[in-house]
Every structure is written in structure tokens, then in C-alpha cells.
Amino acid sequence: MPVIDPSKVPVKTGSIYPEPYASMMKGRSSLRLGDAGGLTQFGVNLVTLEPGALSSLRHWHLNEDEFVMVTEGICTLVQDAGPVEMGVGDCAAFPAGSTDGHHFINKTDKIARFLVVGTKAKSEVATYSDVDFRVEIGGGKATFTYWDGTPFAGPR
Amino acid sequence: MPVIDPSKVPVKTGSIYPEPYASMMKGRSSLRLGDAGGLTQFGVNLVTLEPGALSSLRHWHLNEDEFVMVTEGICTLVQDAGPVEMGVGDCAAFPAGSTDGHHFINKTDKIARFLVVGTKAKSEVATYSDVDFRVEIGGGKATFTYWDGTPFAGPR
């Protein structure tokens, strides 16, 4: 049955980031709706941001297109040019390889939610805009480095 | 600027189907939001169904995953097992190669809308469940056939 029952989709919390970045993702959770529906070519997650929560560190993807639609509350999109408020139904697209990093912040005192779609590329590099940090993903493994590719050993 | 201004996205109407199927798509229109945002790996369309309109003929995709979230009104999803009503926020997934054809009907007297995401595969075959019809897409060209692959020459 292709209709997805969200009550049967596990709520994913936590982060693959090393500390101190993982703790900065407190208040963020998501439902992996696409996975629950058996999709393999792109991910579709419904992300919940508690008041004050971040969607991620500000980042851009090398290989994967990304699309977001706000479904509840107000999300503040932050990019190089600064913040923009997005309400229910507002959409944004982040083409693979576009180096203007993005993330969403819930600056309100109410829950905010957005649907996010991202291609599942065989390998991926996410580069973080505001901290010297990068994640390479491939072969089911995440490798954390600085921007110059040397192994991550804490913030610098 | 990655935030998409829907008022600047052209409203797409019509259908690639030959007649009489094209005329059956009356009352359906869409905004190609993903294309407007520069995405190339998957399409994201906001589809509007006037009262009585169909999203498409009932079909399944050979190569492309598909995901739908209802964003306004009520859409009736029809598959082999029959109709299911979906309201705002309800989601459904249709993995590539799953042969249980689907489409959406607006059986209400109000506008209904849904967001649909589909992979952009290099080649694709859509097979229609309720009529002897198939579309092969590749190299920027659509070829219409019967289920057995012979050229389409009208309903039979």
C-alpha cells in the first residue's frame, strides 16, 4: 500500500556529525517517508524543528540536488546573502554543486516542519560554510575532514 | 536565489498524450518548481486538479521512483485495490517497477493540489493500467505504443 502511515515511520533523531556539531542538532527530528515507501532513488524526509532548532550546519552538496517545501510554521532559510523567512507552501531548490550553503532555523516559539527531497547519489561530499568541516559519503561510510581534506580532529 | 516564486513559474497545461486521452486531462495544470529552481536530477511539480480532473491516466513507471504529498483539498488515489481518499499532508510513494498503477482524481467541488516528485531517468516507460497504452520516453522523444509494443493507432 503506497499511502504512508506516518505513525508507523520511526522518528529519527541524532546526527552523524562528530561533536561539538552533533549537539547543535538538538531539537531536530525527521521521518524518512521515502524510505518507508520503498523509494531508493531519492530520499524524502519530513523534518521537525523545535523552537530554536537547526536543520543542519549550513552546507552545500556536490552531487545531490535538494528541494524543500515548508509544511508547518515558519522556517528561516540562511544562505550567503542572509536570512529569508519561509512559510507554509514556500519552496526552495538547491542544485548539486551550487556553493551557496544553506540551512533552516526555527526562530519561532512554535514547531516548524518541512519536506525535504534529496537525490541518493552513489557518493557525496557535503561542505559546511561556517565551520572548517566537510563530510564525504561513499560505500556506506562517512568520512569527516577539514575543507582541505585532512582528517577532522575537532573544530579549528 | 533558491526560494522559488510561484508567480514567476509558468502554468503548464495540456498533455503529451494522443487523443482521446489528452482531452481527459482537462482541468489539470502544474507548476514545474524543480525545473524553476535549476534542478536536473528529479522533477518537482505542484499539480492543480480542478473539480473532476484526473492527474493522469492510471499508470506505473518502469525506471522512476515517484512520491506525492497532498497540499490542498482532497485527492482520491486509485490503484488496483480501489480508491483511497488523501487529505492535506498525506503522502504516498510509488517505487520504480512496481506494477500497481496509480492516479489521482479530484472528486470534490473544490480545487485540490499535490506536490509530486519523480526521478529524471535517461529513459522511461510508463504503462497505463486501464487502457491498452504505453509511452516510451528517451532521447527527448515520446513514443506511444500498445502494451505489446506495436505503434499506437487509437484506442482498442
What does this structure look like?
The structure is a homodimer of 156-residue chains. The longest helix of chain A is centred in the first third of the chain and has 4 residues, at 33-36. The mean pLDDT of chain A is 97. Chain A has a single domain (8-122), classed as Jelly Rolls (Sandwich), CATH 2.60.120.10. A 6-stranded antiparallel sheet of chain A has the order 2-3-4-11-6-9. In chain A, strands 5-12-13-14 form a 4-stranded antiparallel sheet, with no helix packed on it. In chain A, strands 8-7-10 form a 3-stranded antiparallel sheet, with no helix packed on it. Chain A starts with a strand and ends in an 11-residue tail after the last strand. In chain A, strand 7 (75-79) and strand 8 form a beta hairpin. Chain A is mostly beta strands and 156 residues long. Chain A is globular, with a radius of gyration of 15 Å. Chain A contains 1 helix and 14 strands, in the order βββαβββββββββββ. The interface between A and B is large, with 40 and 40 residues. Strand 1 (3-4) of chain A pairs antiparallel with strand 9 (91-94) of chain B.
